[in-house]
Amino acid sequence: MKDVNCGYCMRDEHLDAFGIFICELKVSSLILFREQSHPGRCIVAYKDHVSEIVDISAEERAAFMEDVNRAAKAIHAAFHPDKVNYGAYGDTGCHLHVHLVPKYRDGFEWGGVFQMNPGLKKLTDSEYEEMISRIRENL
């Protein structure tokens, strides 16, 4: 099931406003977050428009978490963060997804909770493509 107003579902201008589609995983999509104050920040969005992790079967939940794990491994291999923070929100965009936020000891917001969208760092198209390439190489 899809929601025509949801960027994760439609991959249209709603998604383009905050992310760039990287690839399909087993039961989800991997998306590069446009705001890159945390180099390598991505989102793993479940394939269907469901709000809660309790709304999917145990098998689908396990596959979704395997997708999150696969993406986190790729981020670790590509960018070598000191820690990846995981955030599952959705108060306004009720589509099951997890933010993977690489944190670096000498970087932005180390030691604190990450901001949802600090709006501090956008990249050029070629810089986004280079990041996406590094992630894909490590999936």
List the helices and strands and how they pair.
Layout: H1 7-10, H2 13-16, E1 19-24, E2 28-33, E3 42-46, H3 58-79, E4 83-87, E5 97-103, H4 125-137
Antiparallel strand pairs: 1-2, 2-3, 3-5, 4-5
Helix pairs in contact: 3-4
Helix content percent band = 25-40%
Major β-sheet annotation: 5 strands, antiparallel
Number of strands: 5
User: C-alpha Rg, in Å?
Assistant: 14 Å
Number of helices: 4
CATH fold description = HIT family, subunit A
Q: What is the CATH class designation?
A: Alpha Beta
Give the number of domains.
Answer: 1
Give the uncertain stretches in residue-range form.
none
CATH-level-4 superfamily name: HIT-like
Whole-number mean pLDDT: 93
| Tertiary shape | globular
Q: Strand order of the main beta sheet, please? A: 1-2-3-5-4
- Written as H for each helix and E for each strand, in order along the chain, the element string is HHEEEHEEH
Label the CATH architecture: 2-Layer Sandwich
Taken as a percent bin, the fraction of beta residues is 15-25%
Classification by helices and strands: alpha+beta
- CA-to-CA gap between the ends? 27 Å
Quick overview:
Helices cover 31% and strands 21% of the residues. By secondary structure, the chain is an alpha+beta fold.
Structure characterization notes:
The protein is an alpha+beta fold and 139 residues long. It has a single domain, classed as HIT-like (HIT family, subunit A). Helix content is 31%, strand content 21%. Strands 1-2-3-5-4 form a five-stranded antiparallel β-sheet, with helices on one face. The longest helix is centred in the middle third of the chain and has 22 residues. The model has no long low-confidence stretch (mean pLDDT 93).
